Amino acid sequence: MERRVFSVVALLSLFLLLAACAPDREEVTSEQDTNSEGTAEKPEELTIWANDEEKQLEAIKKIAADYEEQEGIKVNVVPKSMLDQVQELSLAGPEGNGPDLFYQPHDQLGTIVAQGLAEPLNISDEELSGYSDVAVEAVSYKYNGETAIYGVPSVLETYGVFYNKDIISKAPETIEDLKTILEKHTNPAKDEYGFLMKPNDLYFAYPFFKNYGGYIFGGETGEFDTTDIGLNNEGAVEGGKLFQSFFGSEKIPPGTTADVVDGLFTAGKVGAVINGPWSITGYKEAIGDSLGFAPFPEINGEPGKTLVGVKSWMVSYYSENKDWAQDLALFMTNEENQKYYFEVAGEMPTNTNALESIEDPIYNAFAEQVKYGVPMPSTPQMSQVWEPMNNALQFIAEGENVQAVLDEAVRQIKTKIQASGASQ
Amino acid sequence: MILSILFAGLGQLYNRRFMKGFTFIIVELAFIVTLLESINYGLWGLRTLGTIPGVDHSIRLLVFGVLSLIGVFFALSLYIYNVVDARNQARKIQNGWKPMGFRESMRTFYDHAFPYLMTFPGLVLMIFVVIFPLLFSVLLAFTNYNLYNSPPRNLVDWVGFENFVNLATVPIWQDTFVSVFSWTIVWTVVATTLQIGLGLFLALLVNDPRIKFKKLIRTILILPWAVPAFVTILIFSAMFNDDFGAINKDIIMPLFGGDGLPWLSDPFYARVAIIMVQTWLGFPFIFALFTGVLQSISKDWYEAADVDGGSRFQKFRHITLPHVMFATAPLLIMQYAQNFNNFNVIYLFNEGGPPVRGQNAGGTDILISWVYKLTFDTNNYSMAAAISIIMGLFVSGFAFYQFRRTRSFKEEGEI
């Protein structure tokens, strides 16, 4: 008896599982009723997700208020950490709770596009001409054979050499200068170093490879060929050897960490370090007017080609007012507003006129450096590159064979890309 | 009985239990009206994980699916209860039993079921806080959820045991998994045993009647526990730095000369260092625990031992140790389980480093920190879920075995 009850129940539940059938859904086509002439109906309000840092928010709120006044569209500025935005959008977007605009660094582009979260923009060439070339390059991306621009660039970031004028009188112009400084001013017993950099960071070490012909992925920016990795070619090995020559006893200790670099530099014990604009405030507070900044030294007779990061406004795929969202993004990054944003938030503008109008010598040098910058690769595969390469750099700094280490790193990157499930 | 199978409550009505019958009917009707559609949708989603990319969000469907499974489970158990109940009653009536009146049966029900009634909210909470995420991550291990099939743009599919097979066969997973797994076990056993040993040793010392300033010593020994662990770990991490850390610069180099030990760059030394850090962090708890238990051992035992001429070691071996272990075994087991998944120490100390050539986890990475890296660097969620399952099975198997053998968890009278 008992058994029969259960068999009936079991049958019933199986039946339930099989009978579970597809609900009726309308097939939503991605083409929405956006007007091609850009005269889509004016919405009442737009929502944007801004990074939740105090200064940045303050600037964005003011700019949004200006837009409200000009166009009569209410702009809701929602503070949301940049790091959380992508994940939250992928959940909130389909529910209709997402923003119209969100704010992301361009190296997330591949991930964002793979998840279908950002809408390709149609910005005219004339509008694009206002931005630095490297910024526009950074926000374009190829997906399914079509290259498009996915973001309105807003902020530029790169790095160069900070130096302490009390220790070295003249900024290093070539990498050889930098090495001379290192050898002349280093005294490990007293924790004094002519030059310090963290060994295990591809971001900062990139010019060593690039200037000799190494590269991360082949192909053009935004249209990368991720099967072609150039980090162990002849040039990369040569750069790696140069990199290696900076480490060892009486030189940079391979155990150097970011904390050590910042700690010793702000204590006035280091001649020069490599860092980006985010550390200007801290360094200025610590060593004041002695702080100098120079573009990345020349390597192999060319200016150091540093990696550039671009933060941009992206239009959500789920936005109902894509044209106006784009319009708002363009408004927020026009010359006047970028100048204002720089003054308040201290982040470097992408707008060329705004960039050139900055009078601070440190930022001027950064603007100079941006000209030689290379956008960070934006494909999702890039996230598999960092760790093996950072580890390889650590091994190189510890004195292991450059060619062998780089070969191994590249092999590992390839298997990691495969293991992460990339089909392309 | 057949009536009950057809529709809940009919059997009870047939048995002339009108109140009960109507309640069942109402419950089933409510169930059908409100939940059937969403459960159907959930089960459909669970089976297919969506069919139209960009419209169906596979992960949300998976969540709905799990919820509906739980709903179905509830409904089924109610339903079975209803059928069994009807049959029992029918049998009782056949045997000449008279049903009680409504009020009376309510009272017996209340008396009988009070403990169940009280634990019910806890049960519901557990279902959503423990069972639901557990089911979700177990199911995730059988999908191909990674960045390139991420919803909303793409769909996630069921792939069966592919992840587990990959873990065992694809070289990059295989090599790393074996070495990480073995280090995890070494780490768990050595670090936990050391902290327990040290704690016990210190507790015994401080409890010796000849020791003065007990309170002061105890306070000092408990201090490492009072400082938040992550602060301690970060400080240790700086102190162990090869080139700039205090341990090499101020202790080893002046005393022994040389260049100091490669604490952070050599896997072996990094492992030694991290085990020492964990011992430092863990012993105060064990120390406090044992100190408490030691107070409760009756002095008579020791006096009796003295009369018999027992040595100091014999007294420890046959009186102190069994007492202490009997009272604390479950907590000690928890220590092992906790260290098996001690993400904080590993990650904050040097992020699982140093790098090891030819494998994709660092020298001190234990399974949990490796899974963390996988999920956030590689976005390979399904593989991370697969490894988590293996970890979960291991820990629960271990804990289950130990709990069964621990007397403290035996029910009364079974000792």
UniProtKB/TrEMBL annotation, chain A:
Q: Which InterPro entries match?
A: SBP
Which domain of life does the protein's organism represent? Bacteria
The alphabetical list of record keywords is:
Signal, Transport
What range does the record give for the signal peptide?
1-22
Family named by the database record: Belongs to the bacterial solute-binding protein 1 family.
This protein's name: Extracellular solute-binding protein
- Higher taxonomy: Bacteria, Bacillati, Bacillota, Bacilli, Bacillales
TrEMBL record, chain B:
Stretch forming the signal peptide = none
| Positions of transmembrane segments | 21-41, 61-84, 113-142, 185-207, 219-240, 268-290, 319-337, 381-401
- InterPro entries linked to this entry: MalF_N, MetI-like, MetI-like_sf
Question: What keywords tag this UniProt record?
Answer: Cell membrane, Membrane, Sugar transport, Transmembrane, Transmembrane helix, Transport
SUPFAM superfamilies xrefs:
MalF N-terminal region-like, MetI-like
Membrane topology (UniProt): Multi-pass membrane protein
Q: Pfam family of this protein, just one?
A: BPD_transp_1
Q: Which CDD domains match?
A: TM_PBP2
For this protein, the record's PROSITE patterns field holds: ABC_TM1
Ranges for domain ABC transmembrane type-1 come to 181-402
Q: What are the subcellular locations of this protein?
A: Cell membrane
Name the predominant localization. membrane
What is the recorded function of this protein according to its Swiss-Prot or TrEMBL entry? Answer: Part of the ABC transporter complex MalEFGK involved in maltose/maltodextrin import. Probably responsible for the translocation of the substrate across the membrane.
User: Which family does the similarity line name?
Assistant: Belongs to the binding-protein-dependent transport system permease family. MalFG subfamily.
- Provide the protein name: Maltose/maltodextrin transport system permease protein
